[in-house]
Fold this sequence. Notes:
Domain Ferric oxidoreductase: 68-186
Transmembrane segments: 26-47, 67-84, 96-118, 138-157, 178-195, 207-226
Order of helices and strands: HHHHHHHHHHHHH
Structural class: mainly alpha
Number of strands: 0
Radius of gyration: 20 Å
InterPro entries: Fe3_Rdtase_TM_dom
Number of helices: 13
Membrane topology: Multi-pass membrane protein
Bound molecules: protoporphyrin IX containing FE
Largest sheet: none
Subcellular location: Membrane
Shape: globular
Helix content: over 70%
Distance between the termini: 56 Å
Strand content: under 5%
Amino acid sequence: MYIIVCLTIVTLLSYFLSDYIKKYSINTYIVVSTLSLMAIIHAILILNGNSIEYVVGLKQLMRAIDSGAMGGAVFILVMYMGVFDMKKAYQRKLRVIRAELSIIGCIITFPHNVHYLFSFIMNSGSIVKARDFTVWTNLMMFAAAIIAIIIMIPLFITSFRYFRKKISAKAWKNLQEYAYIFYAMIFIQVMMVYLGRPSSLVRNLNLLFYFLIFTSYTVLKIKMVCEKRRLKIEKLAANKY
Ligand code: HEM
């Protein structure tokens, strides 16, 4: 259950370091990129059968980044910011660093993408040969992951203020709509990973956790859109009379 630990740590760090992240975003990206690079080196060494000695906690941190749990936790927080109530001070404090967290999420997911993309391609022969349910879960996981990466790249680039200024506000807003497909792809990818594994307490808890996180977000988002629409109609009606 790396995801629960990661989500707790990511939320607490984002909250308490919100001002720092906003003011010194470049420094933050450098620290996260260093961790990302370390996780790539870690993955390469592990894939080559090396055993590595770590100081306490570093092994777990590398595993959390490599498994996708750290990136997933950052994206879950970014996703939930879309339904935050800006009247609440603690939610506003987190919301102001949404663009920075999106960039951090992309950087920290990079080692996971590189590692699992390569190992999927290298093992594709045995994946397709398996004549059972796992062929379909693996193929769907792969397709969802590829679509997620394709959507993530332009969203990542346009999260930087420099590139954001180069496109019109309308084009930027339209591009942001693709974030919903991105979240849906993460959901499908993770569900396929866990559905393809033999049933166990940890697998079922992971499935339940991701299911609850993504469905509760969907319900909150739909409620928010309906509420906005209702207010708009009421405003139009008030202006008419
Ligand atoms: C934007 C791209 C991606 C995101 C956001 C993402 C996100 C995630 C998340 C949140 C998890 C669950 C981690 C956990 O609960 O411990 C995960 C696991 C996994 N993902 Fe991805 N993923 C991405 C790309 C990929 C790609 C390209 C592949 C390979 C084709 C892949 C294969 C896997 C596998 C095999 C696992 C299980 C890992 C393990 O337990 O060691 N993912 N991913």
